[in-house]
Amino acid sequence: MANATFMKVQDVADELGVSKSYAYKIVQKLNAELKEQGFLTISGRVNKQYFLERTCYGSKKKGD
Question: What is the pLDDT of residues 6-16, one digit of tens each?
Answer without folding.
Answer: 999 999 999 99
